[in-house]
Amino acid sequence: MANPNSFRNLANNLVSQGQLQALWRNPSAIAAIASLLAHGLLFAALPLLPRQEVRAKEADIKDPVSITELTPAEQSRLPDMVTLPPVELPPISSAPKNGSLFTLPSLSQPNTRTSITPSDSLLAPPPPLPIFIPPILPPTQFPSFSTIQIPPAQPAPVRPVQPQASDSPAAMPSPSLSPAAPVSPSAAADSPPASPSAEDLNPDQVAAQPEPQPSPARTEADIQQDLIARQQELRELYTFRPEGTSVEAANSSFLSWYGEAMGKDYGEGEAEPTQEEVTADYLKVGCPLKKTQRAVVGVVVDAESQIVGDPRLLKSSGYGLFNQEALQVAKAHEFKNESGGNQVYLLGVNFKYSEEVCPPGFSPIAPAG
């Protein structure tokens, strides 16, 4: 029989007091011990639970289905599986070795899929692009006014000082004692007449001749004023002004000018003015504008086809340089008046822009330098 003291000593040797204290201080050990105790209690309590409540209760069948048996008459109408002819299948040996049953189409074959036309598509095709898209022109660049050069003032020519006559005998030339060579008449005729010297002129004639006065030198302020005036003139020529460009303004100008030129108002009984159209050369100074312009000038012509008075600008082109040129074209135009009296003409002057007159990169004003 074992000694109880030996078991006590063995327990003391296995678990000492220091090890127990170390286990109680370790949270992992406490969690493991608690888990073991909980699972042990669960396994111990399972046999004590009631088995009737654990089992699932089956639902009661309310409408049981009865088994139906066929009568001999009904069974006679059923097909007899024995009398059916057997299905004849081809033997395996007769099947082609390289049959097309499992053959895949070759990758080298062209794609035979039909292409979908735009009409079959659900989406309508986009509208075609326009054949010509007008380019966006850059804004009109006026010529630089700073490139205009004003020529410097020319200095006045210096007049050579004429030697004055002296009364001293030393200044008088002594006559030559050698005989003079004979002069032929032809040589005398060919030689130009000698210009009179200061000694040959009468003192009164010398005093009467006015001496040329040197022109006063232009100052920097005068040159600056001329440059400003030129810039203002060019600005007026190149600036678009809408006054007088409309048809209403042209009709008003015609009525006013007709009363002044003909001495009476224009009425229904008056003869209608003769209208003519001319095409003038495009001004090279107007190349930076790159626009076709038209102006209408009113002219009165007498019975001899001569212009009476000055032509009047009735419809403006919008630019001063084309308006001035239109007036000059009207003055130089040849009119043929066959009415026997004064006739009013409305002359339309057209300026058509073309790259032949204004090639790309053309500058009407030469750069400075």
From TrEMBL:
Domain of life: Bacteria
Composition bias type Polar residues, residue spans: 100-117
Biased composition (Low complexity): 161-198
Residue segments, region Disordered: 100-123, 143-220
Protein name as annotated: TonB C-terminal domain-containing protein
Annotated source species: Pegethrix bostrychoides GSE-TBD4-15B
